[in-house]
């Protein structure tokens, strides 16, 4: 008898009919001879509705009270799913994060899980029940309700799978797996049978919104077998695996495009020790995440520094850097929001040279200009003009022959 | 410094604007130099909305899961009210029934409170916070969420006031107190300054929907000073007091009309020992509450028995009694839904005779026929035709001079 953790997102439980569908799927899994723990998110739109209520009362509501408020969304889903499973003739029990004992730190609205007690779940599984756990939520040591922030229900599912030593953690979503590229851009993009944790991490942080990075990191750290599947059909999903499971590694696993970033350039900075440190300390102080950083070769004692940030942070970064520009007598700040970051990801490039030059050649042949480059062991990213992003993805997908197995 | 428990019902917190109004009231009470514990119900309509969701999934949802579901309603209210109080510059913390430690029995959807731990509330009050507690809910010993059934938030408020030894428990509602009669029927009905627990109990169970009986019983048992006030204006409400507080007792406190009952008559029953017992055992087995019971004087070894039940129970009672009628060879069952129960209530009638005859005379003078009578130490009820109920209330209100202090 295998123990399977299944996670269903907000779209999958968006209305009573969909909840019944999820219930059927859960019951099928149970009747196939498995123990099942289910993690659910709030019904689609519910969390936003609650946050809007809060905003009508306060522009800046307390994080503790926000967590108290929005955690009701998942509590509603678990109760309804339990009723739906009962209706299909199987026993089931719903549990809040607090009832399971999902202990987190104190950071309301983006808490981190510290510890999970498996006892209550194991006891209910032993009674032949489906155990349904509210995703996205936990409690801190004062018994205050906390929430885990974006992608929190995925993290809950993976964490439960880890403590329960589950045989599989299945993440059900509205796409049916991880593709070599976004199928809306590349119609012949291929669904991957498997992908390594590291590749998935790069794909996730590069704009493939299938799984949140945090849950993948967690799965990697605690060795949780993970897969991504569609809740709307029964097709096999994508397995996220340890590198060692893969017999023969293709060079490139996929291509992604990310248009959420802007490029900020400080021109004509004095090339002195400590200037870059000063700059990025300041940025970190305001909790702004920096992605790529490039420093030009120095000329006549001056240099330029470019970096990318999320477009939402542009107004903040402009006001922060205005003073600094004066202080270090940089010539100007230049912000370009018309950019896209195109990446090729693949664990195989560790052992294959020539990936970067092939990527640059493919883009050059298509007349696409590269303005920034950054590389890691398993990915290469290029910043190009936003309007050329889709063409670039197509060109790279074809050039690296990702449509072929 | 006084400790005041305030309870606001669903209409009082029906939307963000009303929640802000409640917050203002709470903050005013605090700034008058009091410690304040607030109990709130779910936003008006929210509980029904959740129950309808459940009914879309299951005709007969599990009580445990129903409690899990509907208890979110109060959790939403407490979080929003905390935000509103913060917005007005006072510190506040919201707590669920579980977080307070409101321990109940296992009877989901109509649990009874067994124990409440005052520690957490006292600790937060000592930190100068307004403590906001979700009404209507608790947990059982397995940590399952339970709800207290109809009027549960009133019960929560009175119970908290009892364990905290509060100086006053104020129940805010959409009427501004207890009246000598329903002001919609009797325009010159007078708001009572005070009423005894016993009278309030009779009034509550007789159709004056201001306070649920359970909370009044609780207040009486634990000696909690209680008052009913409007959340929409600042007028003084009605105090519910121990008998001994009242210096001079008026004979009659109020007149009520209840049109929710039907009269069931079994005609021509054999007048033998055990027949009535058989009848009412059967009715009790199906959880049907009986109110008034009358047995006619026996003639020729046969008698008639009449009793009143809630109109909702009429279909059930008909099917239950069909068999019995045959078994005991009664002549027929007669159901009359066209009735109203008119009552006069007052602790003073203990020491004043003639109340009953005055009541019957007043009704007779108005040409109103009485078909059943029942009395207790502090009330007299008459069943009349439903269409004559309003007239009866007016006649009795005037005849007993209830418009005068």
UniProtKB/TrEMBL annotation, chains A, B:
- Residues in ACT domain copies: 264-340, 344-405
EC number(s) given by UniProt: 2.7.2.4
A GO term for molecular function: ATP binding
Q: In which pathway does it act?
A: Amino-acid biosynthesis; L-threonine biosynthesis; L-threonine from L-aspartate: step 1/5; Amino-acid biosynthesis; L-methionine biosynthesis via de novo pathway; L-homoserine from L-aspartate: step 1/3; Amino-acid biosynthesis; L-lysine biosynthesis via DAP pathway; (S)-tetrahydrodipicolinate from L-aspartate: step 1/4
Q: Looking at the UniProt record for this protein, which Gene Ontology cellular component terms does it annotate, in alphabetical order?
A: cytosol
**Keyword tags:** Amino-acid biosynthesis, ATP-binding, Kinase, Lysine biosynthesis, Nucleotide-binding, Transferase
Q: Which residues bind ATP?
A: 7-10, 173-174, 179, 184, 209-210
Entry binding sites for substrate: 47, 74
The source's superkingdom equals Bacteria
The UniProt catalytic activity note for this protein reads: L-aspartate + ATP = 4-phospho-L-aspartate + ADP
Give any single GO term for biological process: threonine biosynthetic process
So where does this one cross the membrane?
none
The record's similarity note reads: Belongs to the aspartokinase family.
Do you know which Pfam families this protein is assigned to? Answer: AA_kinase (PF00696), ACT (PF01842), ACT_9 (PF22468)
Q: Which CDD domains match?
A: AAK_AKii-LysC-BS (cd04261), ACT_AK-LysC-DapG-like_2 (cd04923), ACT_AKii-LysC-BS-like_1 (cd04913)
SUPFAM superfamilies named among the record's database cross-references: ACT-like, Carbamate kinase-like
Protein name according to UniProt? Aspartokinase
